[in-house]
Design goal:
With about 100 residues, this protein is α/β, with parallel strands linked by helices. Helix content is about 35%, strand content about 20%.
Length: about 100
């Protein structure tokens, strides 16, 4: 079963991701912040990462940078409600925005 890791600080979205994706046959792992998401990605094999950009502390760009180095074959999708605020440099670390 393909596994998707969702990293977001919004509790409602962390409930929504599994509700939607598990029906489609995915196993969904969730993390509430960047460091927890990185730790989970190190422990569990994941096929895709959905990552919020606006995270407290370690933002999505920092997390994407770490994950792109440690898991270069795992696609990272940046999710944000404020696309206009995303830095241009994210294109180097994200597979989709």
């Amino acid at each position: 079963m393909p596994t998707i890791l969702c990293i977001d600080d919004d509790e409602k979205l962390l409930e929504l991701y599994p509700a939607l994706l598990e029906r489609q046959g995915y196993l969904v792992l969730t993390a509430r912040n960047g460091p927890d998401g990185i730790a989970l990605a190190r422990q569990e094999p994941v096929d895709t990462i959905v990552l919020d950009f606006n995270l407290p502390g370690m933002n999505g760009e920092d997390v994407a940078q770490v994950l792109s180095v440690e898991l270069p074959d795992v696609p990272v999708v940046i999710w944000s409600g404020s696309l206009e605020l995303l830095p241009e440099s994210l294109k180097w670390f994200a597979d989709a925005i």
